[in-house]
Design a protein that fits this description.
- It is a single chain.
- The protein contains 9 helices and 18 strands.
- The protein is of the alpha+beta class.
- Strand 14 and strand 15 form a beta hairpin.
- The strands form 3 sheets. Strands 1, 2, 3, 4, 5, 6 and 7 form a 7-stranded mixed beta sheet that branches. Strands 8-13-9-10-11-12 form a 6-stranded antiparallel beta sheet, sandwiched between helices.
- The protein is rod-shaped and about 190 Å long.
């Protein structure tokens, strides 16, 4: 049975120079993961599919001790993407190791919005969004919504407040701008749209920004809030919530600086209601929306397993989807976040499921070979029995032929004997008749002789 023994999963984490924090995070994931796995971090350019190997940093876990090695190693069983990799490259990798490359779609804000907007249920949770077109559509968008965000699309910036601007159109035509600079929230005012445009356009890349309707969420002490959910696939391959928390900014803007205050979701909801039923209902709604987003991504065909989702809740309790982050960073603090180890759980699930499938296929192949061998033995036995039966039938047939021949010869001999007897009797009869005739002739002669005398 040793031939069917499962080996520890070998998990690859693909990282990049753009986000070096994920490379450092890999070892921490392994330290916290209670299971038995080996891990390698690597850059996509060091993956050698033709040679079935990869160059990277290998971590071998023995109990609670982790041994670090650098070099060239066999291809991992599973690959967890922590950076953008071209979809054609992903497909090439999957042709070699199977569909075991996850978080394979590092989408930007515009791609995500277009994907989620196709779902009727999710559409009502999405703030209206358009792509920036050479700065010409900022004015009509701003005048329609009066409070908007300009957000960078590029995946390397899109999942933080860096490069983001909030623009408020005031009565009389003046504008207020809020943006992040050096990890602090900055504010600026303009007396006219033209002055704002002259200031903002040089800072924007037209092909790399979206315009988005601003949503006024519930506030805590007049400060802006949002909700973060980390969603992961677990060791059974199913989506579940790894963490939910509420963030409260130190200001009234949704451009959240690092000095945010974090609450458990139940404590956050208690800031505006103590109704236990409403608290439970809101928590269920948040979880349900997170799962719905994950399921829509699954149905789109992308292999995702690690997502960070930013939501907002307005004063009516309606939830809004602000952002879906395919490169979330686990939360460190008093609120427990299982997203640190869940990717390794899911990677192990994929590897072991594939191994189990291989083991099952090997067993099935072995059983099929045994059944085939047994069938062949039976067929040989049947063939041997048929040959013996055929020989017996041939001998019996030959015996019958001999008997028939003997019977025929006997019948012929009997017929010949009967014919000979008949011929003899006929011949004897003829002799008798001839004798009688001769005797009659002699008597007649005698009579004539006496007469003449």
């Amino acid at each position: 049975m040793d031939q069917y023994k499962q080996k520890p999963p070998f998990i690859g984490i693909c990282v990049s120079k753009i986000k070096p924090g994920f490379e450092r995070l890999a070892k921490e994931r392994l330290e916290r993961y209670p299971g038995d796995v080996n891990l390698i971090t690597f850059r996509i350019e060091n993956l050698n599919l033709a040679g079935f190997n990869v160059k990277g940093v290998y971590f071998e876990k023995k109990g609670w001790k982790i041994i670090r090695k650098e070099g060239v190693f066999p291809l991992p069983d599973v690959i967890y993407l922590q950076c953008h990799v071209d979809n054609d490259v992903v497909k090439q990798v999957e042709r070699v190791i199977g569909r075991k490359v996850f978080n394979s779609f590092i989408f930007d804000k515009w791609e995500c919005w277009n994907l989620l907007e196709k779902d009727n249920e999710l559409r009502r949770h999405l703030p209206y969004t358009k792509k920036l077109e050479n700065g010409t559509n900022i004015s009509p968008f701003l005048h329609h919504y009066r409070d908007i965000f300009l957000k960078p699309i590029n995946a390397s910036h899109a999942h933080s407040s860096k490069g983001m601007f909030r623009v408020k159109l005031q009565e009389g035509g003046s504008l207020e701008i809020f943006y992040r600079e050096k990890n602090k929230m900055q504010g600026k005012g303009f007396g006219s749209y033209q002055k704002f445009q002259d200031w903002i356009l040089p800072k924007l890349c037209p092909d790399n920004y979206i315009l988005q309707q601003s949503i006024e969420t519930v506030k805590t002490s007049k400060n802006a809030t949002d909700i973060r959910i980390n969603m992961n696939k677990n060791n059974k391959g199913q989506w579940e919530v790894s963490m939910i928390l509420a963030r409260v900014a130190s200001n009234s803007s949704h451009i959240i600086p690092r000095t945010s205050i974090f609450y458990s979701i139940s404590n956050f909801i208690k800031t505006f209601t103590y109704d236990k039923g409403k608290i439970e209902e809101m928590e269920r709604s948040i979880t349900s929306l997170g799962l719905k987003i994950c399921n829509v991504l699954d149905k789109s065909g992308y292999h995702m397993a690690d997502l960070g989702i930013d939501l907002g809740m307005d004063k009516n309790g309606h939830l809004w989807i602000f952002e879906v982050n395919p490169l979330p960073f686990p939360y460190r603090g008093s609120i427990q976040d299982h997203s640190l180890i869940r990717p390794l759980e899911y990677a192990s699930y994929l590897a072991l499921t594939y191994q189990q499938k291989q083991v099952l296929e090997q067993k099935q192949t072995s059983e099929q070979e045994q059944r085939l061998e047994h069938k062949q033995e039976l067929e040989q036995e049947q063939t041997s029995e048929q040959e013996q039966t055929s020989e017996q039938e041939q001998r019996l047939e030959h015996k019958q032929e001999l008997e028939q021949k003997q019977t025929s010869e006997q019948e012929q001999t009997s017929e010949q004997e009967q014919t000979s007897e008949q011929e003899q009797r006929l011949e004897h009869k003829q002799e008798l008749e001839q004798k009688q005739t001769s005797e009659q002739e002699q008597d007649t002669d005698k009579k004539w002789w006496r007469f003449w005398k």
